[in-house]
Amino acid sequence: MRDRPSGTKINQPDPHVRRILERAELEGIELIRFLYADHGGVIRGKAASRSRLAERLRTGIGHTVAMMAMNMLDQLQEVEHMSPVGEVRIVPDPATYVPLPHAPGAAAMLSDLCLPDGTPWDACARTFLKNAVAELASENYTLQAAFEPEFTLGRRLPDPSGGPDRLVPLDDALCYANAGFDTAHDYTIKLMRALETQGLRVEHYHPELGPGQQELSIRHAPALRAADNHVLYRETVRGVAMRMSMWATLAPKPLADQSGNGAHLHLSLWRDSQNVFGEDDEIRAAFIGGLIAHLPALTALTCGSVNSFRRLSPRSWSSAYAVYGPDNREAAVRVCSPLGESGEPNLELKPSDSSANPYLSLGAVIHAGLDGIRRKLDPGEPVDVDPDTRPGRYPRLPASLPEALDALEADEVLMEALGPLRRNAYLTVKRSEAAAFAGRDVSYELFNHLRVF
């Protein structure tokens, strides 16, 4: 594969470039990772050396188109226009440059996938979110968002019976128990410092319900920055653990008999510096209506793995029904009450986890909500009880990845938004994952998700 296209110049001069080059030298950075998220939800990339960084900021790094047809098991799928023939460039966004405290000597930038002439590639997930943000802007809206991730901290050990490696949680502390704070203290402080160094502002932290389960949330940001933040968050959570001879996984269900790890998505819609969700009940209702109408299809993108659907079960506070309600933690869409007099109302989408590609996930949510606004969709009555206590009354979310993919394929709005190349690749990759795990036992599924996510 060629790494340097003759005469190609992708990035125009950028005010961030000189600062990046100066910082890389002052901070002793030797390798700069150009990161992107693929259709399997995996964070991949290539790295430029500091000596070639100025050039690579202009040209990007060469990359085969076939990589966006790779599933989470590194099984390459047959997707039209994603064969061994064809080239794109991994083009970094200089505004996202951060040193990686958990990897001394390394830095990272979030990247787009572009054609050799510099135009966006139709399979680039980050471009999909950019386009969704532009659609919102055409209606004079902006979106603030934050992922609220959970993860399990422990150690990856060989299975005594010779099976796949298993995750042994760090502790068996109770939910929110002070003992859990103490057990994970050294790791948590290092993680917080690493996140803050990268510009991710930590909001709060606590030990969660399951053994070794942690929850650490960061401050909301504009939509693109929120997705970029989640990529950095995922990799930092895992990187800090590895440097401490531990293992952290954000897999939705790394332990079959314990609580799952979500990445609830918080959203607020803004216009003219005003939070529309707090000022306009009709717009908020229509946005919720869009989410509810598209939830079966959205689930294929917000809960993007076979393992995700072990988590989405009734009475587990992860949501299993396509309903909404005020502060209802069993509803798929929770209308959150503001914190204090200065707090802002927001929506929380609960069927969301870190096995999803955050750019596709958040972009699809924007398209669904915007469709609700444009068509003035009615979300129905809010639900103020656990929906599982009223059997048959409320629609269930898809119970498996294949079922969710069928719903996505039937959703005209989201399929149109994804576009032909991206939707074909995503459906093919995800159906291949479903098939790959269908004939294997639970331990194989758990192992492969906890090692990847």
Question: What does this protein look like?
Answer:
There is one protein chain. With 453 residues, the chain is α+β, with helices and mostly antiparallel strands. The chain has two domains: 15-118, Ubiquitin-like (UB roll) (Roll); 131-452, Creatine Kinase, Chain A, domain 2 (2-Layer Sandwich), CATH 3.30.590.10. The chain is built from 14 helices and 17 strands. Strands 7, 8, 9, 10, 11, 12, 13, 14, 15, 16 and 17 form an eleven-stranded mixed sheet that branches. Strands 1, 2, 3, 4, 5 and 6 form a six-stranded mixed sheet that branches. Helix 5 crosses helix 6, helix 8 crosses helix 11 (401-410) and helix 11 (401-410) packs antiparallel against helix 13 (420-438). It is globular, with a radius of gyration of 21 Å. The chain starts with 14 loop residues before the first helix and ends with a helix. The model is unreliable at 1-11 (pLDDT under 50).
